[in-house]
TrEMBL record:
Residues 395-523 form the TMEM62 Ig-like domain. SUPFAM superfamilies: Metallo-dependent phosphatases. Keywords: Membrane, Transmembrane, Transmembrane helix. It comes from Podila verticillata NRRL 6337. This is Uncharacterized protein. GO terms for molecular function: hydrolase activity. Residues 616-697 form the TMEM62 C-terminal domain. Residues 968-978 have a biased composition (Basic residues). The chain crosses the membrane at residues 21-39, 534-562, 654-673, 765-785, 806-827, 833-856. Residues 916-930 have a biased composition (Acidic residues). The keyword Transmembrane applies.
Length: 988
C-alpha cells in the first residue's frame, strides 16, 4: 500500500490536534471549575479559623524572646532530698457518661466519689468532658437529658466536692456528648451552664506556693453550635477561641509549669489561628502538658497508652474513661518534675446498681420540712437523693516522683539535671485503711511493707515515711503519703536506661508494684507506644483532609479524567495507515493475511490492537511455565485489561458522565439537607457539605452566643449563582485582589449563614468515596467491558468472567443495601429530607439501575461479540467436520484401491514364479534381471503392501507410491525385453 504524501499527512495531523483541543476544552473547563469552586467553599467554611493578620517582625521577635525566657533552666542549685516540701498532686478524670438508660457508668462515678477521692485526697480534681451520655436507649439519637444532669449535680453536692477548698476543688469541662444538640451557650439545652461546677466555657486558675507558681487552663473545643450525633466527634477551636487561649497563656508567663486541659486530644481537634496569625503549634511552646480524654482507650487494646511527646516539646496525655474502665489519673509535681500514674478502680467489687432504677425506688428520710410538717406519714415522705455507696477496699497506689520515668521527660520545661544531683528516691504510696473480710484480719500488719529493686537487685537502704499522715493533717499541712530512700544517683549516670521497681504490701496483705524506667543523664527514652503513640502524634483531623484530597484526586484523575482524555485523543486522531498484516496479529487462522482492516479513527485501531494483545496473553496462560504464569496472568494481563476497561468505560457516555458528575458533586454541592440541631428549630436546618455544615438561616450565630461561628455573607443564594462560582474561587485564591465581587458590601449586607467547619464531614465523605464511588465505579467498569475484548475463545473466563459469578453479585447487592440502610439511618437522625435531598440517594438509585442493566444482563455489544465469536466457532467446527468426513472418504477409497492393487500384484507374482514359460532366447542377463524380482519371493512394492507400509529394512513406505513405483518398474522391465507383458493365467 502506498503511503500518503507528507503535506497531506501534516494537514491531517493538524486537524486531529485541533479536534482534540476542541474536545478537551469543555471537559477540562467543567472539571477545573468544579475544583476551584470546592476550594472556594473550603475558604468560606474556614474563614473563622484563619482570620489572621500579618504579624510584624518586631512582634514575632518579642514573642520568641518571651518564650525563651519562659523556658525552665536545666541548671540550678535545687537538690531533691528527703524534705516534704516542693511537692503537690491533683487528679484528672474523664468521660463519665452518666446515663439514664445505662447505670454502670453512674455506678463507677459514684464509686470514684465515695472510694477514690477519700483515699487519694488530692489538691483538686479536673474532669475533662463527657459528663453525661446524652444518647437515647437505642444508642442512635442524641439529646440533653435533664435526669442525667440532675444526677451529676446531685452527686457533686452529696459528695461535698463543690464546697471543698472554698469551691476551688472541682473543675469540669464540656465534651462532645455535653454539646449534642446544643444550639448556643444561652440555650436551655446547654445544661452545663446551670448544673456543672465550672459553668463557664473553660477555666483558668493558678496554684501559688512558696516554691513556685503553676497555671491550669481549661479550653472548650466543642463545635458551636453543637450538632446532634454522629457528626459531632471532632473538636473545633476557632480564631476567637485561639485568641482567648493566647491571652491566658500570656498571663501564665513566668509560671514553673502550665497545664492545658481539653476534652479533645490535639489529634482530633481542628485548630485555627489567632488574630495575629499564630497557630496552635506556636502557642503550645508555652505550656508543659496537654491533658485530655475522649478516645476511651480505643478498641482491642490499641489505646492503652495514648501518650506522645509532641514536636513543640510538650507532653500530651490522654486518660482512659470512667464509663467502662473506671480509670482516673494522679499527677504529681515534685520539685518541678511531673510524674503520673493511671489507676483502675476495682470494677469487680463495684455494686451493679447503686443508682435506683426508678425514682420511686429511692429511699426516704424522716424529718420536718421548712414549715414544720412531719414526714413520718408515707404519703408525705421526702425523697432523698440516691446514696453514693459505701467505700470499697482498694489496693495500694504508687507514684514514683524521683527519679522520673525517662519516657515522659520534658527537657524544655523540666529541670532534668536535678535527677543526677538528687540524694533520695521519692515515691508516694496510698494505702486503704478499709478492712477486708474478717478472715484476713489475722494477717493485719502494723505498717506497710516496702521493697525497692534497681535493675533487679535489692536496694538495701530503707524506705522512710516523711510526709503527713491523714490523721495529722491540718490547715497548714495537707495529707501527703511521701516515702524516701537514700541513693547514689551518680552510680547510674552511665548514659543507659535503668529500671526501678517499688513493691508495697499494705496492712491487710494487698500487694501492688510499680516499675519506672529512668535515666540520670536527663535524656528521654523511647515511649514505645506503637499505634497509640502514633495516633496521638499524628493530627487525624488534618490527615483526613489530606487523605481525602489524595484519594479523591487519584480516583478522579487516574480512573476518570486521564482515561477520558486519552480516549478523546484517540477518537479525534486519524487511523493508522494500512500496512501488511503480521501473522501474530491474526485471531482467526482462516482469515486473510493480506491487508489490515480499515478503522474509522485511532481508538478503533487501538482497541483492536489491545484486544489482540490480550487474546495472545489469555490464550497462553495455561501453556507458559509455572514460574512465568504469575506475571502473565496476574500482572501483565491484568494491567492491560484494566487499562482497556477504564478507557472503554470513558467512551460510554451514560456511564461515564453520570459517574463524573457524581464525583464532582461530592466536592461542590450539598450532600443533603437535614436538621442538624433540632433544638434550634428552623435555624438548626442546613446543608451537609464536604467542607462542613452550613446553616443558612442562623445569621452568623444561633441566638447570640456563638461568636466563633463562621459567617458566609453570600447567604443561601450563594449556591444558586453560577456566575459567581469562578469569580468567587479566583477571589479566594488571590485574596480578593482579583474578582472581589463575592466580598462586596452589598453581599456583606445580605442575610448571613453559619458555617461549622468539621472534620466529621471529611471523614463521612471519605466513606462515601470508598463505597459509592470507588467500589461501584470499579464494578461498573468491569461490567461495561465485554469479556470478548479480554479473553480468547479458548479461555473459560470469556463466557463466565468473575464479576458475573453469583457470589460477586451477592456481594455487590449487599454493599448496595448497606449504603441504602446508611441513608435511612441518617434520615432517622436528621429528618426525612436526607432521603429526597441527598445526592447519595439518587446515586444509589442510578447505581442500582446500572448494575441491573449492565452488570446483571449482557450488553448488546457483548451479545454481538459472543454471538460473532460463537458463529466463528460453529463455522470452524463445521469446517473441521467436513475435513474429517473428506479425509475419511479418502482413506476408504485409498484402502480399497490398495486392496485391489494388492490382489493384482500378488496374482502376477504368483504366475511369474510358478510355471510361466519364458522364451529360450532370453540371455542370462535378462534372466537374472527377471529372477531378481520374482525368484520365489515378492517384489519390494508387494512386500510394502503386504507389510502395511514397511519394507524389509523397517523403513516407512507410502503404499500408494509403492504401487506406482512397482507398476513403472514392471513396464520398464517389459520394454527392456522388447515384448508384450506376460499374460498370467487366471487364478481361482
Amino acid at each position: 500500500m502506498s503511503r500518503r504524501p507528507a503535506p497531506e499527512l501534516a494537514v491531517q495531523t493538524t486537524r486531529s490536534w485541533l479536534k482534540t483541543a476542541i474536545a478537551f476544552v469543555p471537559f477540562l473547563t467543567l472539571v477545573i471549575s468544579a475544583w476551584l469552586y470546592a476550594l472556594h467553599l473550603d475558604t468560606l467554611a474556614n474563614q473563622s479559623m484563619y482570620n489572621a493578620k500579618v504579624q510584624s517582625r518586631q512582634q514575632q521577635e518579642q514573642e520568641q524572646k518571651q518564650q525563651q525566657e519562659n523556658q525552665t533552666s536545666s541548671q540550678d542549685n535545687v537538690v531533691i532530698g528527703d524534705s516534704k516540701d516542693n511537692i503537690f498532686y491533683f487528679v484528672q478524670v474523664s468521660d463519665l457518661h452518666i446515663s439514664t438508660f445505662r447505670k454502670a457508668s453512674t455506678a463507677n462515678f459514684y464509686t470514684f466519689l465515695s472510694t477514690a477521692l477519700p483515699l487519694v485526697d488530692p489538691a483538686f480534681v479536673v474532669v475533662t468532658g463527657d459528663l453525661t451520655d446524652a444518647k437515647d436507649q437505642q444508642l442512635v439519637g442524641s439529646m440533653q437529658y435533664v435526669d442525667e444532669w440532675v444526677t451529676y449535680k446531685n452527686a457533686l453536692e452529696e459528695s461535698g466536692v463543690l464546697k471543698k477548698r472554698n469551691g476551688t476543688f472541682w473543675h469540669d469541662l464540656r465534651g462532645n456528648h455535653d454539646c449534642f444538640n446544643v444550639p448556643d451557650w444561652d440555650s436551655k439545652e446547654n445544661m452545663y451552664a446551670d448544673m456543672s461546677a465550672t459553668k463557664t466555657p473553660g477555666f483558668m486558675f493558678d496554684v501559688k506556693t512558696e516554691y513556685g507558681k503553676y497555671g491550669f487552663i481549661g479550653i472548650d473545643a466543642c463545635p458551636k453550635p453543637g450538632p446532634a450525633r454522629p457528626y459531632n466527634f471532632f473538636g473545633l477551636f476557632e480564631t476567637p477561641d485561639m485568641d482567648s487561649l493566647a491571652r491566658r497563656l500570656t498571663l501564665s508567663q513566668g509560671n514553673n509549669h502550665t497545664f492545658v486541659f481539653s476534652h479533645y486530644p490535639v489529634t482530633t481537634t481542628m485548630f485555627g489561628q489567632t488574630s495575629t496569625g499564630a497557630s496552635f503549634a506556636d502557642l503550645s511552646k508555652s505550656f508543659s502538658v496537654y491533658m485530655c480524654g475522649h478516645l476511651h482507650k480505643l478498641k482491642w487494646g490499641l489505646g492503652d497508652a495514648l501518650q506522645a511527646y509532641q514536636p513543640t516539646h510538650f507532653l500530651e496525655l490522654e486518660v482512659g474513661d470512667m464509663k467502662q474502665n473506671g480509670i482516673y489519673r494522679i499527677m504529681v509535681v515534685d520539685h518541678d518534675m511531673i510524674s503520673f500514674t493511671d489507676v483502675s478502680m476495682p470494677m469487680t467489687t463495684i455494686p451493679p446498681a447503686i443508682m435506683p432504677a426508678h425514682p420511686d425506688d429511692a429511699f426516704v428520710e424522716e424529718g420536718d420540712d421548712d414549715k414544720g410538717n412531719s414526714f413520718s406519714d408515707p404519703k408525705l415522705q421526702k425523697k432523698k437523693r440516691p446514696a453514693l455507696g459505701r467505700r470499697l477496699p482498694t489496693n495500694p497506689i504508687i507514684v514514683v516522683s524521683n527519679p522520673k520515668d525517662s519516657r515522659y521527660l520534658i527537657p524544655k520545661h523540666e529541670p532534668v539535671n536535678r535527677i543526677a544531683t538528687s540524694t533520695h528516691i521519692r515515691f508516694l504510696v496510698w494505702t486503704d485503711s478499709q478492712a477486708p473480710p474478717p478472715e484476713y484480719h489475722e494477717h493485719m500488719r502494723k505498717d506497710i511493707k516496702i521493697e525497692l529493686r534497681i535493675d533487679g537487685q535489692p536496694h538495701l537502704n530503707p524506705s522512710t515515711f516523711v510526709g503527713v499522715r491523714e490523721h495529722d493533717k491540718n490547715e497548714e499541712e495537707e495529707f501527703l503519703p511521701l516515702y524516701v530512700s537514700e541513693w547514689d544517683a551518680q552510680k547510674y549516670n552511665d548514659g543507659k536506661e535503668h529500671e526501678l521497681e517499688v513493691k508495697v504490701v499494705d496492712r491487710y496483705g494487698r500487694v501492688s508494684s510499680s516499675t519506672t524506667v529512668f535515666r540520670v543523664d536527663g535524656q528521654r527514652s523511647d515511649m514505645k507506644g506503637g499505634f497509640a503513640e502514633w495516633v496521638m502524634w499524628a493530627n487525624v483531623a488534618l490527615m483526613l483532609k489530606a487523605l481525602f484530597t489524595t484519594g479523591y484526586l487519584f480516583v478522579t484523575l487516574v480512573l476518570l479524567i486521564l482515561p477520558k482524555l486519552y480516549s478523546l485523543y484517540l477518537q479525534t486522531s486519524p487511523p493508522p495507515s494500512p500496512t501488511t498484516k503480521s501473522s501474530e496479529y491474526i485471531l482467526d487462522p482462516s482469515a486473510s493475511s493480506t491487508d489490515s482492516p480499515v478503522f474509522k479513527n485511532g481508538y478503533e485501531a487501538w482497541l483492536d490492537q489491545k484486544c489482540r494483545h490480550l487474546y495472545r496473553l489469555s490464550s497462553t496462560l495455561s501453556t507458559v511455565p509455572s514460574r512465568n504464569r504469575f506475571w502473565n496472568r496476574f500482572v501483565n494481563h491484568t494491567i492491560h485489561a484494566h487499562v482497556l476497561r477504564f478507557v472503554h468505560f470513558s467512551t460510554q457516555p451514560v456511564l461515564f458522565y453520570l459517574t463524573l458528575i457524581f464525583a464532582l458533586m461530592l466536592v461542590t454541592v450539598p450532600h443533603f439537607w437535614g436538621n442538624f440541631v433540632p433544638a434550634a428549630g428552623d435555624q438548626g436546618q442546613g446543608y451537609f457539605y464536604l467542607q462542613g455544615i452550613y446553616l443558612p438561616h442562623a445569621g452568623g450565630h444561633l441566638g447570640g452566643g456563638l461568636g466563633a461561628a463562621s459567617v458566609d455573607h453570600a447567604g443561601p443564594d450563594r449556591v444558586g449563582k453560577p456566575l459567581s462560582v469562578i469569580s468567587g474561587a479566583i477571589a479566594s485564591l488571590t485574596g480578593g485582589r482579583i474578582a472581589p465581587s463575592l466580598s462586596s458590601s452589598q453581599e456583606a449586607a445580605a442575610i448571613a449563614g453559619t458555617w461549622i467547619p468539621m472534620a466529621d464531614t471529611w471523614m463521612s465523605t471519605i466513606w462515601t468515596v470508598v463505597y459509592d464511588l470507588v467500589i461501584f465505579l470499579y464494578y461498573l467498569t468491569l461490567c461495561a467491558t465485554p469479556s470478548g475484548y479480554l479473553y480468547s475463545p479458548t479461555n473459560p473466563h470469556r463466557l463466565r468472567p468473575y464479576h458475573r459469578t453469583w457470589y460477586v453479585r451477592c456481594l455487590m447487592f449487599g454493599i448496595w443495601m448497606f449504603r441504602c440502610c446508611s441513608v435511612l439511618m441518617t434520615a432517622e437522625l436528621y429528618g426525612p429530607s436526607v432521603v429526597w435531598s441527598g445526592i447519595g440517594t439518587w446515586w444509589l438509585v442510578v447505581v442500582g439501575w446500572l448494575m441491573f442493566m449492565v452488570g446483571w444482563s449482557r450488553s448488546r455489544n457483548e451479545k454481538d461479540i459472543i454471538s460473532l465469536r460463537g458463529e466463528e466457532e460453529a463455522s470452524e467446527e463445521q469446517t473441521m467436520m467436513m475435513d474429517n468426513e473428506a479425509g475419511t472418504r479418502r482413506q476408504v477409497l485409498t484402502t480399497t484401491y490398495q486392496h485391489q492393487e494388492k490382489i493384482r500384484l500378488v496374482s502376477s507374482d504368483w504366475v511369474n514364479t510358478n510355471g510361466v514359460e519364458e522364451e529360450e532366447e532370453d540371455d542370462d542377463e535378462s534372466d537374472e534381471e527377471h529372477d531378481s524380482g520374482v525368484n520365489g519371493t515378492y517384489s519390494d512394492e508387494t512386500k510394502a503392501l503386504l507389510n502395511g507400509g514397511s519394507n524389509d529394512a523397517g523403513d516407512s513406505v507410502d503404499p500408494v507410491q509403492a504401487l506406482e513405483a512397482g507398476a513403472n518398474k514392471k513396464r520398464r522391465h517389459q520394454r527392456g525385453r522388447g515384448g508384450k507383458p506376460a499374460q498370467s493365467k487366471p487364478h481361482v
